[in-house]
Design brief:
The chain has 266 residues and is of the alpha/beta class. Helices cover 42% and strands 15% of the residues. The relative contact order is 0.17.
Length: 266
């Protein structure tokens, strides 16, 4: 099994264009970039993939112990970049994949030109002097609900995460994506996502970085975006005039414009 087949890699766009790698968040797959990709392919070669345990990634690659750490997802990303012989990559990570990108770049920055963190959160749980948006009891309740009734949790959480009541079709799409994810994989991935603390890793980023946040986001409030921006030296912060945690679905044109302007389309 190659890294490419393991992660169901798909590459679109001109071979000689700058490379953008898109990494999806929890409970999703590469299909959720579908509205952004057409905006990028005129100017970029776009690399899409599914994290192990998600989408059409190779099921036999899943290991609950291995993927209890975000560093293991970052290691997969580094393997992919190496196997595909990619250089000067602009890595775009949505939600928890933003921290995978932080870890990948911190581990080996040599193949990365830039980093885009789309609605990132280095820690979801509030701490002294830090507002992540959730108490520990909030997260414990969320995980308990996910454990007891994953499909019910998916349908209940999708509207909160999407935050776009005027676009119910997008909420349905996100819920369907959650429901396609194997519940056992989702339970592990949820704990890895919501219990991680990567605040100390932000200072390890050494490539130009763009932080993209939304005006109103129930999962990663603006305090979090400001924190990430403040702790990655030289980073830029863009606030999109939209709501929710998935602007690549709710505001794809604005999201693509921010990525394109930062990545430097030829």
């Amino acid at each position: 099994m190659t890294a490419r087949s393991r992660n169901n890699v798909n590459i679109v766009g001109p071979d000689d264009a700058p490379t953008i790698m898109l990494a999806h968040g929890f409970g999703c797959d590469q299909q959720l970039w579908r509205l952004v990709v057409p905006e990028l392919v005129p100017n970029f070669r776009v690399v899409l993939f599914d994290h192990v345990g998600c989408g059409a990634a190779e099921p036999s690659a899943w290991d609950a112990e291995r993927y209890a750490s975000l560093q293991r997802y970052a290691d997969d990303i580094l393997e992919l970049v190496s196997a595909l012989e990619l250089r000067d990559v602009t890595f775009v990570g949505h939600s928890v994949a933003a921290m995978m990108g932080v870890l990948a770049v911190a581990t080996d920055p040599s193949r990365f030109a830039k980093l885009v963190l789309l609605t990132p959160s280095p820690r979801y749980i509030d701490d002294e002097g830090y507002r992540g948006g959730f108490s520990r009891s909030d997260i414990d309740e969320l995980l308990e609900s996910l454990d007891s009734n994953y499909l019910g949790w998916s349908r209940a959480m999708a509207p909160v995460i999407m935050g776009a009541p005027d676009q119910p079709e997008l909420t349905d799409e996100l819920a369907d994506s959650f429901c396609r994810t194997d519940p056992e994989c989702a339970r592990v991935f949820a704990r890895t996502t919501f219990l991680s603390d990567n605040r100390a890793d932000l200072r390890r980023v050494s490539v130009p970085t763009l932080v993209i946040e939304c005006e109103h986001d129930a999962i990663a409030p603006r305090d979090v975006g400001a924190y990430v921006h403040r702790h990655i030296e030289g980073s830029e912060l863009v606030t999109l005039n939209t709501t929710g945690h998935c602007p690549h679905l709710s505001a794809p044109e604005a999201t693509a414009r921010a990525i394109t302007a930062f990545a430097g389309a030829p």
